[in-house]
Amino acid sequence: MSPTDAPARGKRPATSATTTPTGRMTALARAELTLLGRNKGTVFAALFVPLVLPFSVRAGAKEMDLAGAGLTTGTLVLPAAIGFSLLFAVYSALVGVFVVRREELVLKRLRTGELRDVEILGGSALPAVLSGLVQCLLLAVGCAALLDLSAPSAPHLAVVGLLLGLVLCAALAAVTASFTRTGESAQVTPLPFLFVSMAGSGLFFPLEMMPDRLASVCELLPLTPVITLVRGAWTGDLSAYESLGAVLTAVAWTVLAVFAVRRWFRWEPRH
Amino acid sequence: MPTNEHEHVIEVTDLRRVYGGGFEAVRGIDFSVRRGEVFALLGTNGAGKTSTVELLEGLAAPAGGRVRVLGHDPYTERAAVRPRTGVMLQEGGFPSELTVAETARMWAGCVSGARPPAEVLALVGLEAKTGTRVKQLSGGQRRRLDLALALLGEPEVLFLDEPSTGLDAEGRRDTWELVSGLREAGTTVLLTTHYLEEAENLADRLAIMHEGRIAATGTPAEVTAAQPSHISFELPTGYFVGDLPPLAELGVSDHDTDGRTVRLRTRELQRAATGLLVWAGQAGVELRRLDVRSASLEEAFLSIAREVSARADAPTTKKEYAA
User: Fold this and answer.
1) CA nearest to B154 within chain A
2) Option in B78, B93, B105 nearest A108 (CB)
3) At CB < 8 Å, which residues of chain A contact B?
4) Which of B55, B69, B106 is the mutation pick for testing A, counting most A CBs within 10 A?
5) Which value does ipTM take for this structure?
6) Cα-based distances in Å from A91 to A85, A168, A170, B9, B185
7) How many Å apart are CA B97 and CA B136, to the nearest integer?
8) CA–CA separation, A128 vs B11, rounded Å?
9) Which of B35, B96, B97 to mutate to test the interface with A (most CBs of A within 10 A)?
């Protein structure tokens, strides 16, 4: 464009400069945070469920031979609590966010602007991801205080596990949203992943206590490496080889999810 | 630079769009829009207007042909085009639980060189509604919010998909004034509408779409001029079409009858009308329900729809001629 076009665009100087990806995502995330606060159903599911479910894990722990598996109540309950938080506050909540924004044509509208596709999904996901992160930190502090859990012996595993878990759950939410048509069906479509994860990823039954063959299958589930890394951070008995395996499994699932989103995510409702 | 004024900011060549189910919504269209021009895509519902505009907005890749907006492909070169365009979709696109002010602030954060949100909201008359949730706005207010946000970045090219649908007469007039003001400021506007009046009032040039194709294009005057004028009247009792003077000599291109009503189409309205009236005067008959009408955009629009429906039920038309 030549400078001679400038006068045609209005006499007043522009009030804000060129946008940046960070600026755009912040603006979107801020609006999405406001919306999160206004949706009581999501707030309840996201805040209440992950704080209550760990009690049932603790109750179930009384039947288990924890010491034989090298675990304590704390190293059983905290990873499970973090898992619940990722599943409910991040994954389920985001399936709803993506589907409802698509139904409202918000995603389509956003795509007419300067935001790139990844910024739209990332910015929309940010409040739920942050709420999940804050919850996990509170849960760690709570478990340390109530369940006599000492500081993690390998904290870096907890950090890596948690970050991978947040990214993976957000990406899987977008995948699930790709196959969810309406806001109503978004109440149901997250259930398979919730059940599979709760049963097989070491939330209620640690993999350490499963038969070896079953455990080696469950290791490959998307959320298992996250729970394994978090648990390993506190027990300290995860070898470098095992840690690497868990990280690679989580990364592989994330890559797969990103591919699926690029391939199948729908930006507008079906006509 | 003078060349700039004639620069084509939108160029469309043999554009096609096919939906998943195989439906071909856009079937090879060509047009271009010069800088500073207001261009209207006119058509009935389902003519392919929105499908076309979405390709220009870069929301989808065409199935064939080429689109250039400001010299770039709006789909593959999104980053180069988006900061310079503003878009008003046909409907919605705002979270229902946000207030007007929150929605505008969110958009302002995503638009390069955004004006203060309050300023554009005032421009469309929503300044009193800033604290209202989007879901509580009327349909017309929502359209105006959409328009305000499309204007936030002072775009060089503005896409308006049915900007006045759902507005009352006053809101429509306000929107027209706004668009005229934008044109004066040099903004290029592409709008779709099914209001003929809107196209006639606003557009420098227009294209009438029908079934995925452009059926007519040009300035409103050119499109109108391409259409025949009409004369219709009731045949006097005891007279038949054969009793009229030779129609071809009067410059009538064709005619049809419906009961006793005769309709003539001509490109030489004065000659045909004179010939007809002189004949009636000499024969001493009264032509009841005489209607002499020069071509209008509405006529152009209707005749395009009629040509197609005539093709669809051709046997009936023939019967009419036989009667």
Assistant:
1) A9
2) B93
3) 1-2, 4-5, 7-10, 12, 14-19, 23-24, 26-28, 30-31, 34-35, 38-39, 101, 104-106, 108-116, 267, 271
4) B106
5) 0.87
6) 9, 9, 6, 43, 48
7) 9
8) 42
9) B97
Coil, strand, or helix at residue A90? Answer: helix
- Cβ separation B4–A12 shorter than 8 A: no
Length of chain A: 271
What are the CA-CA distances from residue B318 to residues A98, A225, B231, B304, B311 (Å)? 56, 76, 21, 19, 11
pLDDT, tens only, B216-275: 899 988 888 888 888 999 999 889 888 888 888 888 988 998 888 999 989 889 999 999
Break chain A into its structural domains and give their ranges.
20-264
pTM, full prediction: 0.86
Residue A144 CA: distances (Å) to CA of A40, A75, A77, A136, A148: 29, 10, 11, 12, 5
Class of domain B2-219: alpha beta
Written as one letter, the residue type at A167 is V
Tens digits of per-residue pLDDT, A76-133? 999 999 999 999 999 999 999 999 999 999 999 999 999 999 999 999 999 999 999 9
Instruction: Tell me if A111 and B94 make a contact (CB, 8 A cut-off).
Output: no
Q: For residue A271, what pLDDT band results from cuts at 50, 70 and 90?
A: low
Beta carbons within 10 angstroms of residue A185's beta carbon: 13
Task: Using a CB–CB cutoff of 8 Å, tell me whether B48 touches chain A.
Answer: no
| Neighbouring residues of B235: CB distance < 8 A, sequence distance ≥ 6 | B241, B257, B260, B261, B262
Give which of B83, B202, B94 is closest to B145, Cα–Cα: B94
pLDDT band at A140 (very low <50, low <70, confident <90, very high): very high
**Strands lying side by side in the sheet with B64-69:** B24-34, B8-18, B64-69
Residue B69: burial class (beta carbons within 10 Å; 0-12, 13-18, 19+): buried
C-alpha A238: how far from chain center: 23
Please answer whether residues B74 and B56 qualify as being in contact, where contact means their C-beta atoms are separated by less than 8 angstroms: yes
What Å distances lie between residue B98 and A34, A146, B240, CA to CA?
Answer: 8, 39, 69
Residues with Cβ < 8 Å from B287, sequence gap 6 or more?
Answer: B233, B234, B236, B276, B277, B280
Neighbours of B260 (CB within 10 A): 14
The CATH number of B225-322, from 2.10.110.10, 3.30.70.980, 1.10.357.10, 3.10.20.600, is: 3.30.70.980
**Domains of chain B: which residue ranges?**
2-219, 225-322
Q: CB A108 to CB B89 under 8 A?
A: yes
